[in-house]
């Protein structure tokens, strides 16, 4: 089920037949869209269509290709293959302005307006009404009030945009995009920073736009919002289209399985043998750890010789959990105990000093130092723990590097090669080696197998098992359910930024994990959009 | 309550009134049309250049070349009209064309080469100063009929004060600046780029054209300031107007324009110029103070204005944070 082995493409084909056409003539049709970045395929032969008066949700995990597809539709990227047809005419937008003039307007996640201009100036920037060759402010203000009135917004349009809340700015951005483009509106995670009431308001505005015949593409990773607002949903995974389904009649568990790439009822052998946890010493315990708006309070006891798998959808609080545990962010509440003694982590340095290690999700961004050699990358954490005043002797560095290059089978022509010339899998192994060199007692791995080839994938899984047997305590975050099943001795399930459940050793299977995620997502979204995730976070925040 | 947008401008205005009241309390003569007329005349060239600088800073940039451009303009006019025998009106048009093109070139380099304005205009500063020296290293007097006519042209204000031609020119430039800043698409685009260049681009602001126009405008006004300066001194000298760009930046900042761009008023720059002029006038009236006190007071004013701007940014960030989390 991994992208690298190409097994997804045929599966995608099967689901396409299930697509329901809404009317014969689509407002927007993208066919066979492909895009590569430096030889890496970001999108492969993706079809997407949008009817007038429809909200079409686009979902998928990180790196599924959602934003690449959107950027191609809006002209921010040029496609490598495929064609786009808007209202019956093939189009080829060369930049954002071009797409806007053709009728495709976009509101990005980070609202792209200018807080230092007034509301009216933001609405009319680039197309100011003129009188006698000069801009006619009163006309712009009048028309702005008129436009915003359609959205039920009665604000002083002569005030700076900066004086209004994110929600108001979002509505202004939508109003501008609709007024400018008028056919297709693309919303890229528009609810990310809105509270529950604001989300409701945004949705009633979208309902109104649907009535007016606009086609709306809605990107989100909040399931309840997909069900609240969308007519159809398209699921992307690893740059392929998995399926397009009408929302009506689509069960939540089906949607989860489409996103995670598994079909139901598939049985998996549980590879990791059960561990009698009570016999093992507690390495660290985290009690009621929480951070406002990031993760609800959770308890976690990490024992030696166990692998805690962390499962949940994108945005469920997986990485946030790891970052609190490692001192990257500081918790608002809760305590951390190492060997039974309370500790506080002001920064990752403190966590490292207590024998913690952390391999982050995005190794390009947070992990490797591209221009340093394999050796330098391996000794980095060890050196940091010793303090920079006491450099490791060169001989010792070389010995450590050679040991791990051999032990982890890191494929490099020599240890002094800059790490950027290594393949993704080997880079990942270097980062793993970096932490192993510090001989950590607790190692946190965030998506350790993302973007590496199948062979290296199996090796990482084998390595995790070995480390556990040697008595290390591991916390592994992964979107790959089979992978979690293969190494976890228990599984934490996260949804909606809270820890919703745990599967003990005997009950771990990909199926069980998926059901746990789906039921947790269901539970937390009871009561419709108004009572969605934003409300949860707010409640947690005030609790 | 005054919105945070107008607050820096209002502060500048209050400071100006207070300062003038203090001066008046000590030297009642300072509240006369003569003093006001001289204030405008003495600072005319600086005011004209500072209007251009206002646009540059509003867009988030900086123009270090204007002092050199003023000197170049003066020397160019003195030499072409004197030795060269070029008709004065033609020489003036020619020098304005040269300075405008020079500014456009700097703007194009800033945009297309993606170079920081600081570096490009620093190069422009050396280049223009060098060109002035190339034309003449001496102070060249200007003796043409047009200059005599313009120097004798003034509007007599009640109370005997004279509003000179250069003073009127500065006021006209300020008014034109206000119109351009607030009533044209170009003006909007300048504020937009200063607010957030990337957002402005996504919203369809023509970044290249606007950037080139901004620096062209600044250099054009520096050329105009050079003409005003040569009218004021009746000479062109390649060592003149050293550091005027810094005075102009000071006036813009004291006038309440954010150095980070995107917020400010041309009218504020006029107030900034008048405050700086007022300090100098006070020192002249006092007669015992060293002229360096001008620099010291301007320095203190700048410090307090930068602190004020920081405070405002901090306040609005806090308010925005509060708005995002309803209580």
From TrEMBL, chain A:
<protein>
    <submittedName>
        <fullName>Sugar ABC transporter ATP-binding protein</fullName>
    </submittedName>
</protein>
<dbReference type="InterPro" id="IPR017871">
    <property type="entry name" value="ABC_transporter-like_CS"/>
</dbReference>
<feature type="compositionally biased region" description="Basic and acidic residues">
    <location>
        <begin position="533"/>
        <end position="543"/>
    </location>
</feature>
<keyword id="KW-0762">Sugar transport</keyword>
<comment type="similarity">
    <text>Belongs to the ABC transporter superfamily.</text>
</comment>
<keyword id="KW-0813">Transport</keyword>
<dbReference type="Pfam" id="PF00005">
    <property type="entry name" value="ABC_tran"/>
</dbReference>
<dbReference type="GO" id="GO:0005524">
    <property type="term" value="F:ATP binding"/>
</dbReference>
<dbReference type="InterPro" id="IPR003593">
    <property type="entry name" value="AAA+_ATPase"/>
</dbReference>
<dbReference type="InterPro" id="IPR003439">
    <property type="entry name" value="ABC_transporter-like_ATP-bd"/>
</dbReference>
<dbReference type="InterPro" id="IPR027417">
    <property type="entry name" value="P-loop_NTPase"/>
</dbReference>
<keyword id="KW-0547">Nucleotide-binding</keyword>
<feature type="domain" description="ABC transporter">
    <location>
        <begin position="28"/>
        <end position="263"/>
    </location>
</feature>
<feature type="domain" description="ABC transporter">
    <location>
        <begin position="280"/>
        <end position="521"/>
    </location>
</feature>
<feature type="region of interest" description="Disordered">
    <location>
        <begin position="520"/>
        <end position="543"/>
    </location>
</feature>
<keyword id="KW-0067">ATP-binding</keyword>
<dbReference type="InterPro" id="IPR050107">
    <property type="entry name" value="ABC_carbohydrate_import_ATPase"/>
</dbReference>
<keyword id="KW-0677">Repeat</keyword>
